[in-house]
Design a protein that fits this description.
The protein is mainly alpha-helical. It has helices at residues 12-21, 33-42, 70-76, 87-97, 112-140, 145-152, 160-170, 180-197, 202-216; strands at residues 2-6, 25-29, 46-47, 67-68, 79-84, 101-108. Bound molecules: NADP nicotinamide-adenine-dinucleotide phosphate.
Length: 234
């Protein structure tokens, strides 16, 4: 298929790469030109100078399809994709999305993918804060926190965040992954939707405030697991 991919950062770059490697004719656009040149050096594809499209005039369809699975999920092509839109365009897009995903689900009409991603982000925020408090507690208590991650990740407390971020949190490494600037963007959307629907996001809103504190520490581009930086004293 002839495909265009707009925005080739941490996530978009490898996702567009999987499409090119699968043999599709891929044209990429990115606001900063340097990333386009870097991408074109790594994959077969065409660079575009503009993202303007005349989609509606050509009778093209729209699907919202946010992803979960992080930088490693994008690089390995094993993202989870939650889609909103009509069934016919979904049926055409699904095999293409499969090139960078291991799970693709049509959730309902346009917007349903975004709402499902909001559920994901609400759950992730709570899990990371719990993990941050647990690991900071382990360090303050004089435990070998890396060993604690090894053992408890085999039990009921396990999570993607524990398995993929537990040890880097102990090592105080956050220069990768999902930038908390983007998490705050997502949590703002969650808060707006909760206000409109009457849902209670007491804890999520509190954690958003913690992320605001880390932004003030200069951590806007740090991975979201950096919540531990607020509370770790040893
Ligand atoms: N990283 C993750 O683990 C993860 C996981 C799931 C979902 N996501 C979502 O995926 C999206 C991209 O995240 P990322 O981690 O790939 O971020 P990133 O590396 O910072 O890439 C962001 C991309 O968006 C473009 N962009 C940002 N602001 C723009 C603007 N005002 N005008 C035009 N282009 C703009 C950037 O262009 P420039 O290169 O010019 O800045 C870049 O191509 C976000 O919505 C994020 O919430 C990320």
């Amino acid at each position: 298929m002839k495909l265009a991919f707009i925005g080739i950062g941490v996530m978009g770059g490898p996702m567009a790469g999987h499409l090119a490697k699968a043999g599709h004719s891929v044209t990429v656009y990115n606001r900063s030109r340097a990333k386009v040149q870097g991408w074109a050096a790594q994959y077969q594809g065409t660079a575009a100078c503009s993202s303007c499209a005349t989609a509606r005039a050509q009778g093209l369809h729209f699907l919202d399809a946010p992803v979960s699975g992080g930088q490693s999920g994008a690089e390995q092509g094993i993202l989870t994709v939650m889609v909103g839109g009509d069934e016919e365009p979904y049926a055409r897009a699904e095999p293409v999305i499969r090139h960078f995903a291991r799970a693709v689900t049509l959730m309902g009409p346009a917007g349903s993918g975004q709402k499902t991603k909001m559920v994901n982000q609400i759950c992730v925020a709570g899990v990371i804060q719990g993990l941050a408090e647990g690991l900071a507690f382990a360090l303050h208590a004089g435990l070998d926190a890396r060993r604690a991650v090894d053992v408890i990740s085999k039990g009921a407390a396990t999570s993607w965040q524990m398995e993929n971020r537990g040890k880097t949190m102990v090592d105080d490494k956050f220069d990768f992954g999902f930038a908390l600037d983007w998490m705050r963007k997502d949590l703002r959307i969650c808060a707006e939707t909760a206000r409109a629907t009457g849902a209670d996001l007491t804890v999520t809103n509190m954690i958003d405030g913690f992320y605001a504190e880390i932004q003030k520490m200069g951590g806007g581009r740090w991975d979201t697991s950096s919540l531990i930086r607020r509370i770790r004293k040893v």
